[in-house]
Amino acid sequence: MSGGATAQPGTRLAPRPASRSALRSGAVRHQLFLPADLSEKLEALARRPGVTKSSILAEALAAWFDREAVSDLDARFAPRLDRMSRQQARIERNSQIGIEVLALFVRYMLAAVPPAAEGDAAARAEGRARFDAFTMKVAEAFARGAGSFGVEIAP
After folding, report:
1. CA distance 125 to 120
2. Where in 47-105 does DSSP place strands (E)?
3. Nearest partner of 54 among 35, 30, 77, judged by Cα
4. Is the confidence at residue 13, as pLDDT, over 70?
5. Greatest alpha-carbon span in the chain
6. Distance CA 34, CA 45 (A)
7. Best exposed site among 17, 26, 107, 116 by fewest CB in 10 Å?
8. By C-alpha distance, which of 91, 73, 66, 110 is closest to 153?
9. Lowest-pLDDT choice from 18-22, 116-120, 121-125, 143-147
10. Is pLDDT at 84 greater than 50 in this prediction?
């Protein structure tokens, strides 16, 4: 790309608008150097109808910046997401263990303990007392933050 301004060695030229149409679109003119092979490829692409060197370079830079932004986000959030995935897998595993233990316990209790008779008030009262004791033990475990198997329970 050629520019119309020249500068003395050691002075710096500020970017300037390229044309009236560029002024309207907010574009800024830049001068840059490209390797010969890239320059040839740019020229070949710009020969197509409706395509300019500026549009090609603008799209290429936008794609490069987008890729860098995604890479930055991956680097920033990937470790957290990995840790959260491991925690969720542990929670799912522990939940499945709890469900299986409960299912086996219920199956055992239904098979081993005969139901209380309708008129047996003493057996029903004993059942309510045991259930109340059971719920109190669960509440105490949650209050302590430690389960029966040494697993930490979050309140």
Report:
1. 9
2. none
3. 30
4. no
5. 110
6. 15
7. 26
8. 91
9. 18-22
10. yes
The pLDDT of residue 4 is above 70? no
| Residue 49, both tokens | 């109808």
Q: Quick one: 45 exposed, middle or buried, by C-beta within 10 A (0-12, 13-18, 19+)? A: middle
Q: Tell me the C-alpha to C-alpha distance, in Å, between residue 19 and each of 16, 29, 107.
A: 9, 9, 83
| Helix 53-112 and helix 36-46, axial crossing angle in degrees, nearest 10 | 90
pTM: 0.42
Structural contact between residues 56 and 42, judged by C-beta atoms closer than 8 angstroms: yes
Tell me what pLDDT residue 16 has: 44
Chain segment 27-73, per-residue pLDDT in tens: 888 888 889 999 999 999 899 998 898 889 889 888 888 777 777 77
- Report the candidate in 8, 65, 57, 55 with the shortest Cα–Cα distance to residue 33: 57
Q: What is the mean pLDDT of residues 133-150?
A: 78
Residue 94 and residue 75: Cα distance in Å, rounded?
A: 30
Enumerate residues 6+ apart whose C-beta is below 8 A from 148. Answer: 141
Beta bridge partners of 146: 152
Instruction: Count CB-CB contacts under 10 A for residue 80.
Output: 9
- Sorted by sequence, the CB contacts under 8 Å of residue 146 that are 6+ apart come out as 152, 153
